[in-house]
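Q: I'm building a small set of examples for a reading group on sequence design. Run inverse folding on the following structure and report the sequence directly after it, with nothing in between.
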């Protein structure tokens, strides 16, 4: 299958103040977030991507634009509602310090598969829609551009963590073990027998090796020689 580069949006004004933005309209990157997104765009400039698919929220579209601006070609730039932030319901807009005193907070930490945010979405539904969207786009880009296609999905922390948990074969209840920082890059390839995770939560390093097709097939015993 094609290779997807999962990019979280850069730091926002809400991140900087410890507030859960959720789907609040108008939450944008702060200056640090712009710098982070620019660096990610620079890292990906050496990789000719066929598309940059984004969550509809402003902070993701801003991050996506930094990536698009540094591409030599003109990748597709669709927006996908299924990659939008989790609907945190009544939690949206509150500070993380206040939310930490809620009874549900400990369930979010230890058993997210059981969480339904008051007036919002369940974390299981969040994972189901986002994983389905990634796999749908991945299959479509491979069908159009071949198995060497590389594309980018720009989304949110919990969304990307849930996608990575699925790729790792982890239960959703373990997804809080995964960290996904602002403007970080994670890389997944969906093979014929299983997904392969090539990187998680990276914010530095050369990505030019992605311009060469990743070899599919069985995992090498002993780990192989790398890219």
């Amino acid at each position: 299958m094609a290779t997807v580069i999962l990019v979280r949006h850069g730091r926002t004004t809400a991140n900087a103040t410890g507030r859960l933005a959720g789907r609040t309209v108008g939450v944008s990157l702060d200056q640090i977030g712009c710098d982070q997104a620019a660096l990610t765009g620079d890292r990906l400039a050496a990789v000719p991507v066929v598309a940059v698919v984004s969550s509809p929220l402003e902070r993701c579209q801003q991050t996506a634009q930094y990536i698009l601006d540094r591409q030599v070609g003109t990748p597709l730039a669709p927006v996908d509602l299924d990659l939008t932030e989790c609907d945190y319901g009544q939690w949206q807009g509150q500070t993380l310090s206040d939310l930490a005193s809620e009874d549900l907070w400990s369930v979010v930490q230890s058993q997210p598969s059981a969480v339904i945010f008051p007036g919002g979405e369940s974390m299981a539904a969040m994972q189901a829609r986002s994983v389905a969207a990634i796999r749908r786009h991945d299959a479509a880009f491979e069908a159009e551009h071949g198995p060497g296609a590389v594309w980018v999905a720009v989304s949110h922390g919990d969304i990307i963590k849930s996608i990575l948990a699925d790729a790792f074969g982890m239960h959703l209840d373990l997804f809080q073990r995964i960290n996904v920082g602002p403007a970080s890059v994670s890389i997944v390839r969906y093979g014929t027998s299983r997904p392969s995770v090539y990187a998680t939560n990276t914010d530095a390093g050369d990505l030019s090796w992605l311009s060469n097709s990743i070899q599919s097939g069985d995992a090498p015993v002993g780990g192989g020689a790398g890219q």
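DSSP finds seven helices and five strands in the chain.
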